[in-house]
Amino acid sequence: MMKNKVQLITYADRITGQNIGALTTLLNGPLKGVFGGVHLLPFYNPIDGSDAGFDPIDHSEVDSRIGTWEDIQVLGKDLDLMADLIVNHVSAQSFQFQDVLAKGKQSEFWDLFLTKDDVFPNGMSEAEQKAIYRPRPGSCFTPMQCGDGQTYDFWTTFTDNQIDINVKVESGVAYLNNVLTKFSANNVNIIRLDAAGYAIKQAGTNCFMLDETFGYLDNLSKQANDLGMETIAEIHSHYQTQVEVAKRVNMVYDFALPPLILHSLFNNDVDALLKWLQISPRNCLTVLDTHDGIGIIDAGPMGDKPGLLNAQQIDNLVETMHANSNNQSRQATGAAASNVDLYQVNCTYYNALGAKDFDYLLSRAIQFFAPGVPQVYYGGLFACENDMELLTNTNVGRDINRPYLDANIIDKALNKPVVKGLIELIKIRNSHPAFAGEFSAQGEGSMCCLSWQLDEQTISLTVDFKLRHALITQVSGDEETTINLNSFLA
């Protein structure tokens, strides 16, 4: 069972400048006792593909430049350890797909990869193609000529270097089973189902989060559970979809929370946030920032479904983020950078808030008091600012928030008041018994109070957004203590 403690999201190499062993040393040294678990972002071969490891050539092999499976075992010995099961695709450079390119349909791996004809054997109409939901602009098919002289339209939901797997056929099932078995044998106890919403494609639909997809997630979760692992479904979609998915898997991400907190701070209005907290899944992980951009679609309208925020509020949210970051995020978002997403703004959360220390700590406090197990991204832990140099060098929008750090940078960051304050907040979230109790939320307009109670233990966060005033109150029997959030920056 996952610990109810804050987890770190990180790459092994980008946080340490070294490897998995150095990450273990960091977590047992300067960060000892801070985190109950770690989401180790792709450590597969290679870690530096076109999508920072999310396009594995070999999903079952640790990139030798950063360690071995033995290093993974050591990291997961005392911490919850999450790894990504990249459900939807594999690298075009994988030996399996290279064999397909060389031999075409004669390859033993032909069935592993999804083509347009697999889903549309009788041809695809223009209306059917327009109906397909894709998180990137352009077509989800890439024509490639194979060694048999034929050109085939391979399904590439994300990029032309990420070839979609046919998860329905025996070879697709065996491929993912092999990775799951490798995880379970090496102290990985939590599986993040990456891009799982796109795994099932069906003619005449939008090919995203279909009824059959829910069934597929059910089976995949049960399979992982049988191996002693919990599953987290990673799906960016309408907020009602998250509520439904949460009923079918062990846990989901609360991706609506980050934009709603920003909206509350930008407008001194908590109504949308409180509406969400009344209905949000309790079996969730909460984030503000991740290796991806800041999700927007999760709080907004989709088709004829109204959102927690309306279209104008979403537009104002995005424009305020751009303004707060001095338009740096605009340079990394949309058509301004390669490998773009339609539903995310690429920016550090710290810069999205205009690098205001109090607003950033308040955002984290709200996250920690919201239902779910909190995760903190390594860039967010150290209040990193947008890495414009890395963005310029790679022209990959997400790299604005995927910095390369080292021991010297970390040492300096740990002395920043905002980082010290964040670590103190993490320790409160990890240690107070009431966070295992019942949650409640009240308020309206610019005021809110988020509370947890377990027997005679209570902890609450009271916020006045207009005055930028926040208090953490702890009650144990007849004893009451109150901490002003500003004191965390002293």
Automatic annotation (TrEMBL):
<feature type="binding site">
    <location>
        <position position="234"/>
    </location>
    <ligand>
        <name>substrate</name>
    </ligand>
</feature>
<dbReference type="InterPro" id="IPR016377">
    <property type="entry name" value="Sucrose_GGa_phosphorylase-rel"/>
</dbReference>
<dbReference type="InterPro" id="IPR006047">
    <property type="entry name" value="GH13_cat_dom"/>
</dbReference>
<comment type="similarity">
    <text>Belongs to the glycosyl hydrolase 13 family. Sucrose phosphorylase subfamily.</text>
</comment>
<feature type="active site" description="Proton donor">
    <location>
        <position position="234"/>
    </location>
</feature>
<dbReference type="Pfam" id="PF00128">
    <property type="entry name" value="Alpha-amylase"/>
</dbReference>
<dbReference type="InterPro" id="IPR017853">
    <property type="entry name" value="GH"/>
</dbReference>
<feature type="binding site">
    <location>
        <begin position="341"/>
        <end position="344"/>
    </location>
    <ligand>
        <name>substrate</name>
    </ligand>
</feature>
<dbReference type="InterPro" id="IPR045857">
    <property type="entry name" value="O16G_dom_2"/>
</dbReference>
<feature type="domain" description="Glycosyl hydrolase family 13 catalytic">
    <location>
        <begin position="7"/>
        <end position="429"/>
    </location>
</feature>
<dbReference type="GO" id="GO:0005975">
    <property type="term" value="P:carbohydrate metabolic process"/>
</dbReference>
<feature type="binding site">
    <location>
        <begin position="291"/>
        <end position="292"/>
    </location>
    <ligand>
        <name>substrate</name>
    </ligand>
</feature>
<feature type="binding site">
    <location>
        <position position="398"/>
    </location>
    <ligand>
        <name>substrate</name>
    </ligand>
</feature>
<dbReference type="GO" id="GO:0009018">
    <property type="term" value="F:sucrose phosphorylase activity"/>
</dbReference>
<feature type="binding site">
    <location>
        <position position="89"/>
    </location>
    <ligand>
        <name>substrate</name>
    </ligand>
</feature>
<dbReference type="InterPro" id="IPR022527">
    <property type="entry name" value="Sucrose_phospho"/>
</dbReference>
<feature type="active site" description="Nucleophile">
    <location>
        <position position="194"/>
    </location>
</feature>
<keyword id="KW-0328">Glycosyltransferase</keyword>
<keyword id="KW-0808">Transferase</keyword>
<feature type="binding site">
    <location>
        <position position="51"/>
    </location>
    <ligand>
        <name>substrate</name>
    </ligand>
</feature>
<protein>
    <submittedName>
        <fullName>Sucrose phosphorylase</fullName>
        <ecNumber>2.4.1.7</ecNumber>
    </submittedName>
</protein>
<feature type="binding site">
    <location>
        <begin position="192"/>
        <end position="194"/>
    </location>
    <ligand>
        <name>substrate</name>
    </ligand>
</feature>
